[in-house]
């Protein structure tokens, strides 16, 4: 075998090895994808079920909260006011803001008195 034939054979073998490595790499990627697809599907199912469970829990909690608030409102607020509120939502929002500010003013001094009490105690 002369040098030219030897170089050709080496080049052919190198090219064949490159093709074999490429095929091996592709086969490995395909095998990994085959293994990962079911795992990804299981994760998506688990996340989907968790989201549905959380959604149901939040929905039930909000329903219970709304029911309790309605019961409290019916007991405390006069009947005429309850009937008029849906007709004038701006009035309900305004009253809520006034009530919130009033509660804030009432409790804010209590915080400063409490801090003075704790400072005097030390």
What is the count of distinct domains?
2
Rounded Rg: 37 Å
Largest sheet: none
What's the tally of helices?
Answer: 3
Total strand segments: 0
Structural class: mainly alpha
C-alpha geometry: elongated
Output the helix-strand order.
HHH
Distance separating the two termini: 101 Å
What's the average pLDDT? 79
Helix content: over 70%
- Measured by DSSP, the beta-strand proportion falls in under 5%
Note poorly predicted spans: none
3D structure, described in words:
It is a single chain. The chain is mainly α. It has 2 domains: 1-76; 79-122. It has 3 helices and no strands. The protein has helices spanning 3-76, 79-84, 89-121.
List the helices and strands and how they pair.
Blueprint: H1 3-76, H2 79-84, H3 89-121
Report a brief summary of the structure:
The protein is an all-alpha fold. Helices cover 93% and strands 0% of the residues.
List keywords for this structure.
single chain; 2 domains; 122 residues; 3 helices; mainly alpha
């Amino acid at each position: 075998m002369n040098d030219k034939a030897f170089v050709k054979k080496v080049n052919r073998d190198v090219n064949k090895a490159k093709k074999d490595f490429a095929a091996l790499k592709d086969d490995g990627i395909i095998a990994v994808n085959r293994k990962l697809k079911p795992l990804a599907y299981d994760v998506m199912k688990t996340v989907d079920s968790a989201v549905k469970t959380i959604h149901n829990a939040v929905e039930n909690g909000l329903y219970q909260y709304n029911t309790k608030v309605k019961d409290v409102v019916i007991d405390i607020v006069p009947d005429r006011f309850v009937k008029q509120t849906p007709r004038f939502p701006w009035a309900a929002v305004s009253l809520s803001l006034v009530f919130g500010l009033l509660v804030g003013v009432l409790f804010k001094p209590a915080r400063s008195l409490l801090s003075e009490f704790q400072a005097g105690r030390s």
